[in-house]
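F.,

This is the one I mentioned.
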């Protein structure tokens, strides 16, 4: 495995100089953030990210994300232009040495939480999802001030209402068809560019606000991988996204898809699964519902050789900043991953 860390570019409070001091850190996970979704990234922007990353002694091999334009998910005629732009981005990223691209196919909303600073008993704060709070929100008509990451970043309320309305008649089967159409065009370009595509599961892995979500379960992951049965068409195994539903056995999924060579990227995060949702917790197994040791062992024993990053951390030690993406708790997560991996490797020899 190659240990990696998400960095939001030069404006990120967490600097490359800090990240490089985390033991065993190899690769940076980043993206070009100043281009609207669907447009082509300039070679200069890509080169600048690469130069900054490499100057800090880290490698520039993973992008999260190249976002997919809603017109592609909706299957509108305008998707052709956006798919061509997507392919062009892959070509440019491949030329710059990128080996893995993470993306998602969630309509409108990316990861969704109901509170970003829930205070845990130890005084740290974390991201949580409580069903009753979701029910209380109507993203289209309501006037809630709840921050749902993904909407406030890119849409005004009116734009949001419009885009959600466009999905009203789109079924899960339609979304599958549109995903298949996208993959058939994009995967050959990824393959030529030396890039492994790694779809991120839907987070949480169920439908929200009546919008279809399909990257949610073992059955659907099987179906996804068959849409284009090529190793470049692979997965981001996000333990927290799949593991927030008790229906998904993340250890089993890790073993199965690593064995098939289809896991290119891992987001390692622990969650406590509750009756009414879930809470993000510290990475340590005993802090949540997931057995992080068993997940990493399943990856290791089945030949996983891709990138792994500690996913969302809590805010600890008074740190403030981007929810889920502070330095301290993610660094603890990285160190925990290192420890587990070393122990697993040595026990196997
Ligand atoms: C959240 C992330 C997601 C992820 C995208 C990939 O913290 O895991 O936003 O980057 O879903 O496209």
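My design for it:
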């Amino acid at each position: 495995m190659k240990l990696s860390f998400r960095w939001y570019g030069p404006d990120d409070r967490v600097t490359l100089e800090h990240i490089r001091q985390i033991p065993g850190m190899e690769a940076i996970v980043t993206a070009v953030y100043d281009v609207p979704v669907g447009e082509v990234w300039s070679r200069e922007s890509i080169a600048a990210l690469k130069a900054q990353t490499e100057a800090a002694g880290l490698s520039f091999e993973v992008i999260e994300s190249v976002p997919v334009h809603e017109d592609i998910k909706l299957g509108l005629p305008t998707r052709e232009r956006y798919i061509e732009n997507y392919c062009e981005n892959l070509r440019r990223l491949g030329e710059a040495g990128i080996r893995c691209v993470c993306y998602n196919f969630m309509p409108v909303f990316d990861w969704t939480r109901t509170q970003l600073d829930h205070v845990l008993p130890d005084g740290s704060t974390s991201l949580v999802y409580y069903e009753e709070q979701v029910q209380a929100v109507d993203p289209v008509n309501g006037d809630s001030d709840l921050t749902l990451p993904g909407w406030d970043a890119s849409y005004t309320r009116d734009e949001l209402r419009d885009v959600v309305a466009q999905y009203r008649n789109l079924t899960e089967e339609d979304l599958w068809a549109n995903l298949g159409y996208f993959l058939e065009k994009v995967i050959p370009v990824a393959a030529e560019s030396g890039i492994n595509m790694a779809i991120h599961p839907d987070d949480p892995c169920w439908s929200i606000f009546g919008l279809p979500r399909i990257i949610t379960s073992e059955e659907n992951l099987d179906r996804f991988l068959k849409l284009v049965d090529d190793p470049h068409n692979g997965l981001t195994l996000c333990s927290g996204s799949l593991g927030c539903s008790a229906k998904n056995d993340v250890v089993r999924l890790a073993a199965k898809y690593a064995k098939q060579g289809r896991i290119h990227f891992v987001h390692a995060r622990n969650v406590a699964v509750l009756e009414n949702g879930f809470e993000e917790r510290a990475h340590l197994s005993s802090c949540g519902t997931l057995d992080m040791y068993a997940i990493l062992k399943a990856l290791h024993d089945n030949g996983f050789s891709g990138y792994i990053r500690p996913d969302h951390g809590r805010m600890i030690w008074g740190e403030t900043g981007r929810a889920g993406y502070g330095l301290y708790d993610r660094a603890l997560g990285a160190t925990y991953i290192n420890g587990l991996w070393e122990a697993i490797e040595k026990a196997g020899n």
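The first strand starts at residue 2 and ends at 6.

Talk soon.
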